Each structure stands twice: as structure tokens, then as C-alpha cells.
Amino acid sequence: MSADPRIHFTASMKPEARLALEAMSRRYGQAGLDKADVVVALGGDGLMLDTLRERSADRLPVYGMHRGTVGFLMNEYDEDRLPERVNAATKVVIHPLEMTATRVDGTKSVLTAINEISLLRQTSQTARLRIIVDGRERLAELSADGVLVSTPAGSTAYNLSAHGPILPIGANLLALTPISPFRPRRWRGALLRHDARVEIEVQEDERRAVSASADTQEVRDVVHVAIREDRAKPMTMLFDEGHGLDERILREQFSL
Fold it and tell me: Catalytic: which of 45, 50, 205, 215?
């Protein structure tokens, strides 16, 4: 990257993020996306995920600064020396998941997830799900609140809250984690190769409605969800030296 990188700023709607956008663009200028070397996202993890998805076509690297609620994927906010920090930043290339969700009416939605794809019951009835991995049935019936498939980048988010494993960023693995399982009681999930193809079929969908989410994007009343890693859409995040995503994930494993 050049000594004086051309920066495009984007921000969430939170007041502190909008104020930061004004201050940073006034100080460093606001390059158009067609001329920018890097995108600086001012907000929380939700904004970072949205910004990465938006950059899947031009593949501009994204450097996040924490001006939101949750900031696991963000760098510390500081208005000084931004070009130097961007130039010294560590690159982390991640590969998102692609979800193809089929609804009860037969319509399909194809969405991208950076953290996880999750299926959740929509009613008071427990979801009943059939799980197929690489064309082979692995679980005929999971009775649970739901199930999720997480990338290493998302393994410390919803996956961790559901008692799933934390995955090192370079592990080339996916975590398949049940959410509040009822039967089989002892099943705690599985580790899958990064290129595994996962299919989840909803059983008794007329009584046990299920929604599917790719990060924050939801599709309701699904009957079938196919999940795979999308290697054609690499995304680049930038982290301050010594505070990269791999280091954060490692620290999380030793936190109490």
C-alpha cells in the first residue's frame, strides 16, 4: 500500500460513529470507492460484516475502528496516525460461507455469511432437523432450538455462546454446533473440513417452522438449507500489529 493510502470511510448510524466519520474524513479526506486503496469502517462488528460483504466484488481491504457496541473485529479508535497504522496493519484473508435457503413456497435465497449460518425455531415447538454432510446423512433427527455452521472468524461469536469450539483462524475447519439440543442429548456438534458441504432439512415444517440466518440476514419458513465455503470471494481484514484476529482468538481461549 502507498505511503499515503487513499481512504474511503464508512460508518454505522450510531451517533459516535457519525461524529467519527465527520472528524476522520475532514482530517484525511474521503476517497471515492473507485479510487480508494482501503475502506475504514467506523462502528461495530455488524458494520464490519456488512462492509466486507459489500467489498466482495472489488476486494478492497477493510480496516475497522471501534465506534459501536461489539468490537471483536475492530481496531481501537484513534484519530492520529491513521495512514501509518493502515500501512503497518496485518492482513487476514477469510473465506465466507454461502447459504442457499429454500422456503416452503419453493423460492430460494442465496446469501453470504462471514461469521456463521444459523437455523432457529420460529415457534414454541422444538425444531426437528436432518443433517447431511457431503451427501451422507450424519444425523437423522436433531431436536433442538436450532443448529449453526461457523467459520473460524465467527467461532468466538454465536458459536461460542452455543458452547461450540473456538477455531484458530488458519484451521481450515468449520464448526457444526447444536443450539440447546434436546435429542440426542449427548451430541455436542462436529468439526468439519472447510470444504465440506452441509445440508440441513427441516422436518415437520408445517408445525415446526424454522428460519435461517447468514450473519444478520434472515430467511423465514425454510425447508432446506445448503451451506458451502465460497473460495471465489476472499475478503481481507486489516488489524493493528500484534492485535490480529489469530491473536484475539487465541486470547479468547484463555479468558475466564
Answer: 45
